[in-house]
Amino acid sequence: MNDQPIQRRLAAILAADIAGYTRLMNEDEDATIAAWQSARTEVIKPSIVATLPGRVEADSHNRARQKPTDNMAAYECVLAGKVLHHHSRRQDNAEALKLLDRAIELDPGYAHARAWRACVLGQAWVYGWDEDPELTLQEIAEELERALALDENDADVHRILAALNITRHNFDQALLHQEMALNLNPNYDLSVVQNGELMTWLGRPDEGIEWIKKAMQLNPFHPPRFWSHLGRAYFVAHRYQDAIEAFKHINTPDQTQHAFIAASYAYLDDDTQAAAHGREVLNCAPDFTVDAHMVTQHYLKDDDHTHHRDGLLKAGLPA
What we know:
mainly alpha, 3 domains, single chain, Serine Threonine Protein Phosphatase 5, Tetratricopeptide repeat
């Protein structure tokens, strides 16, 4: 029997199983595969590449382009580090960094491991889990420089370089690397959602909303932070009720998410709910001030910055 039809059938079975067709496959394999092939262009084809890595953290999204490692222990360290990173918890972040350090120790030329080490360091910087933010940013930049020198065709290298340039308000470079990341893998949910985030910072929230929704479709098992990106985009678009509904998907909101909810309720003139979420902000971060918080926001347009700041003050948060 020809190997190619077998490979196609195995691929179809795997994709169908992810979509919940195991029972149908058991009942009538040929009919189920035919139905899947018919529906693929309408439903599955644009999302299956990203859905599988999202479900099993398989890291196969860029294998054909990036320089692989021959060290399976290093590879497994990276996979485990990614899973811990997506938990967005301080202890998991620290453990992820240890695993990525181990991966690089095992294979110093493993560009993908270096990119993800930079990503984990970036998460620590965003949440304030690092001791020296400036030193952390420098370390991120140096790690990405090494990763890019090792493999300029790794989508994650460009994705994280885009994120770094967003924090520096270097939007031209952010757009350049974001475009590279999407060109290398247009169906990678982390690159797609970040493009939505970037559009929001650039003052184009309606485009941001569409990109973020696309990322959620690509990976139905996405990290909870995707809802935070969507909530911010709705807020910048002045769609306050939609913003609140997006943030409600987060089980344990942090001070930033409560702050967006408080500002949204304030703009809806719901003073009771605005005050309640304002109290939650201060419970999470007793030293929270509006001016200090706004330093962490990366709006290109002054109007968006003012809109956000005024909403926080309207909610009664300390200046």
